[in-house]
Amino acid sequence: MTEILDIDGSVLEGGGQILRNSISLSAILGIPVRVKNIRAGRKKPGLAAQHLKGIQLVAEMCQAKLSGAHIGSTDIQFIPGKIRGGQYLAHIQTAGSVSLLLQVALPCALMADSPVILDLKGGTNVDMAPQIDYMNEIFRENLKHFGAKYSWKIIKRGYFPRGGGHVQVTVNPIRSLKGVTFHDRLYRGPHFVNIWSFVAGNLPVKIAYEMANGAKEKIDIIEHPVYTNCIKDQQYVQNNCSGILLWSPLVTGGVLGADALFKGSIDPFEAGQKIGADFMNLIYSGVSLDSHAQDQMIIYMCLAEGKSIVHTGEITLHTKTAIHIAETIAKTKFTIRPDEEDKNFIECTGLGIFNKNISIND
After folding, report:
1. What angle do CA 72, 76, 81 make, to 5 degrees?
2. Looking at the DSSP assignment, which residues form a beta bridge with residue 257?
3. Helices (H), strands (E): how many in the chain?
């Protein structure tokens, strides 16, 4: 058996991302790992329900030998097998993020031996994680440039503290990922801007409209046509929640986005103004990846064939962590090349992983 690789879960971000990226790469590359000091940088170290369900989901997908996996555990061992297609359920039982379940499982599903259906249950729009709408409108579109796609269906939304959301994701495996180029973009306008806002619980839908109007005020609608969609979630009434998402397709084919989520009392118009101003600063900056997409691209750049280069803003701690794990497990080398002001180029020549699980006739 291949020697087990030790991963220190306390380095850099010191949270769940180390675990997710380590388990994904372990499953895909067939490298056994032992992750120690899990979430040592958090107030409550160790596995929470969301992290436990994520690694159990991947373990089921690749028939792994998994030990130490229980709530509060700070040390797990993962010995992967072959990644199998099929239908898999991961039910967090809390408002833990289904987007983070998708983060750990999706790279593995792309390297399965047949199509994968993921039934993910938990929180769809919760703090400290990308909203599922961000994953669908921004991340999913950027992922297509690697040659990877997935389809999705939001069956029910779920919010803090109860969760209760259900998202179904269907993934067709691919032979390999291809390198991407997200750069060489000068702002030349116009870009059309999508604004989606929502409320849930006993909040009136006018709050969603006020958020959208606040964001719209910060956008030059002559230069940037704006399309808005404001909704009230009629399915879920136990918990109040509101949120907003802005995104814009770029001429290079990528998508830039920004989102915000609110649980307490807010001035919805001012909240919309703030995210609208932040989003326009992002558009005018000339970058091709926003800060939330930045770290999510690293694992795909690592696995892809050929060179990838992305142009983004300040390098986040999550991105530095994702790079550290990719370099530790996959032995790829990433280069960060500073650009003007606080912008940067991230470059990597990927492994060119070929999916050996699918037959030549697939």
Report:
1. 135
2. 247
3. 10, 16
Phi, psi of 101 (to 5 degrees): -65, -40
Give the confidence band of 104 by pLDDT, cuts at 50, 70, 90.
very high
CB-count burial class (<10 Å; 0-12, 13-18, 19+) for 171 = buried
- CB count, 10 Å around CB of 211? 32
How many other CB atoms sit within 10 Å of the CB of residue 341? 10
- Phi-psi region for residue 66, left (φ > 0), alpha (ψ -120 to 50) or beta? beta
Short-list 180, 156, 177, CA closest to 109: 177
Which of 354, 326, 342 lies closest to 5 in space, CA to CA? 326
Output the six-digit token pair for 21: 């990226």
DSSP state of 161: T
Question: Phi and psi dihedrals of 64, rounded to 5?
Answer: -80, 155
CA distances to 187, 192, 206 from 249, rounded to whole Å, are 12, 7, 27
* More confident of the two residues 321 and 236: 321
DSSP letter (8 states) at residue 135: I
Q: Which of 51, 311, 318, 324 is catalytic?
A: 318
pLDDT in tens, 283-334: 888 889 999 999 999 999 999 999 999 999 999 999 999 999 999 999 999 9
Give Cβ neighbours of residue 221 (< 8 Å, ≥ 6 apart).
none
Task: Report the share of the chain in percent with pLDDT over 70.
Answer: 95
Identify each DSSP E strand in 92-138 by its residue range.
Answer: 116-122
Q: What token pair was written down for 153?
A: 């269906």
Q: Using CA atoms, how far apart are residues 85 and 102, in angstroms rounded to an integer? A: 15
Residue 159's nearest CA partner among 233, 90, 50, 89 is 233
191 flagged as catalytic = no
pLDDT tens readout for residues 60-100: 999 999 999 999 999 999 999 999 999 999 999 888 999 99
CA geometry: angle 72, 8, 344, nearest 5 deg: 115
Residue 66 · residue 23 · CB < 8 Å: no
- Distance, in Å, from the CA atom of 298 to the CA atom of 178, rounded to the nearest integer, reads 13
Provide the 10 A C-beta neighbour count for residue 251.
11
Asked if residue 161 has a cis previous peptide bond (ω within 30° of 0), the answer is yes
What is the model's pLDDT at position 197? 96
